[in-house]
Amino acid sequence: MNFSSFIATRYFRSKKSKNFITVLSVISMIGVAVGTMALVIVMSVFNGLEDLIRSLFASFDAELKIEAAEGKSFEVNDEWLEEIKKLEGVLVLTEVIEDNALFEYQGNQLVARIKGVSENFLDQGRFANGYFWGDTTLGTDIRPGAILGRGVGFFLSVNLENVNTPLKVYYPKAPRSAATLDPNQMYGTGYLEPRAYFSIERQFDDEYVIAPLKFTEELLSYGNKRTALEVKVEEGQSIDEVQKRLKGFLGPEFSVKNADEQHAALIRTVKLEKLFVFLTLTFILGIASFNIFFSLSMLAIEKKKDIAVLKAMGASEKLVRNIFIKQGALIALSGALIGLVLGYLVCLLQETFGLVSLGIASAVVESYPVKVVWLDFLWISLAVLGITYLASFRPAWIASQVETTKLL
Fold first, then answer.
1. Which end of the chain has less neighbouring CB within 10 Å, N or C?
2. Where are the transmembrane segments (predicted)?
3. What mean pLDDT, rounded, does the chain reach?
């Protein structure tokens, strides 16, 4: 321990002659502790929400999604698909045809997304999170079935137990050169048997109906065209590495997106919100640190004679400044350490016991999700150090300007 650190520690531990300075120091520590604790808790909640969003999307979206770089669909053939399946790390390859369609059930109508998928769709671990009730199959070629988002099913008043009432699907046909006056010739019609509901996230619940690929292909007249291919990666394989292999094999005509890239805008929004909350709470922490400024200013006035003695003994202005800056650092870091520990304990209790509920009966999770990321602790500590230096610099400079001749 160098001399300035020794003196700063003695000042920090010793009782001040003026009780007001002690009170200010304690208030400073409490303010820093509360601000730090709030930062830890809020940032952990944002981390938890980000993880929750990823887990919910992972229940519906593929780990990797292949789409045409330009246009809505692309041609496929069995030989090409087999080559993709043979790539290292590719476990399951699901063909997808997705488009808007009109659904009707007992007079109720709704425009939603029909997602035609090959039989191995459910082999990708879909609907692992959220809610799912009903049959986990998509029927047969003769009686194709459908898995409906809960919002779609509720809006259409679909009764899963009523097997005699099908779900009608309408899709407009491509325009012909010859016009027709018969409206029935302007759209294709298909029938699905409602088999199950899923509930993951409102974006999916209110928009999607999962149907067999063959049914969708015939209704939409897609032939060998597909709107996407979804890939499940082998366990133990790196998703990033498999993504690079697919990009290298497919070339620039296709885009290969991982789970985050499929919802890049939403993930970016959550990260931006977390950043702005961090900056806002850091600003509040900065306001709370004004107490450090006042307590050090009062301490500098109280210790003028001590400073004069030190200067008479040969202490430089830099040494005096360092004493008071380190004194402020001790006050702030003590409060920060208390805040970090309390914040971590609150997050641990929330994760274990769910102290604060979301207050939404239909939510996938009952309480606010939290996730402690140790890198956040580093950023919070750096913010506290920066604020402490700014709050301590002016009182430290004033203390270093004490003139020895006027006090000795």
1. N
2. 20-46, 275-302, 323-346, 372-391
3. 86
Chain-centroid distance, C-alpha 230: 22
Give the residue extent of every domain in the chain.
3-57+266-407, 62-262
pLDDT in tens, 308-319: 777 777 778 778
Confidence of residue 304 (pLDDT cuts 50, 70, 90): confident
Q: 201 in helix, strand or coil?
A: coil
- Give the tokens for residue 264: 């890049």
Strand partners, 151: none
**pLDDT tens per residue across span 58-99:** 888 899 999 999 999 999 999 999 999 999 999 999 999 999
Residue 4 CB neighbours (<10 A):
19
In angstroms, the CA 220 to CA 128 distance is 29
Task: Report yes or no: 58 and 259 within 8 Å, Cβ to Cβ.
Answer: yes
From the list 291, 337, 390, 356, the residue with the least C-alpha distance to 20 is 291
Query: CA 176, CA 190: separation in Å to the nearest integer?
Result: 20
Range of weakest confidence among 34-48, 115-129, 135-149, 306-320? 306-320
DSSP 8-state code for residue 131: E
Instruction: Report long-range pairs for 241-250 (Cβ below 8 Å, ≥24 apart).
Output: 241/89, 242/64, 242/87, 242/88, 242/89, 242/90, 243/64, 245/87, 245/88, 245/89, 246/64, 246/66, 246/84, 246/87, 246/90, 249/83, 249/84, 249/87, 250/66, 250/84
User: Structure tokens of 115?
Assistant: 């997602």
Smallest CA-to-CA distance from 194 within 155, 144, 151, 154 is with 144
* Model pTM score: 0.80
Helices and strands (DSSP H and E) totals, the chain: 14, 12
Cα–Cα distance measured from residue 35 to residue 13, given in angstroms and rounded to the nearest whole number: 23
23 phi, psi to nearest 5 deg: -60, -45
Residue 145 sits at φ, ψ, to 5 deg, of -110, 170
Please, how many CA atoms are within 13 Å of residue 120, restricted to the half-sphere of its CB?
12
Q: How far is CA 257 from CA 29, 64, 72, 115, 243, in A?
A: 47, 6, 16, 18, 8
Nearest to 21 by CA among 346, 338, 331: 331
Identify the band that residue 183 occupies on the pLDDT scale cut at 50, 70 and 90.
low
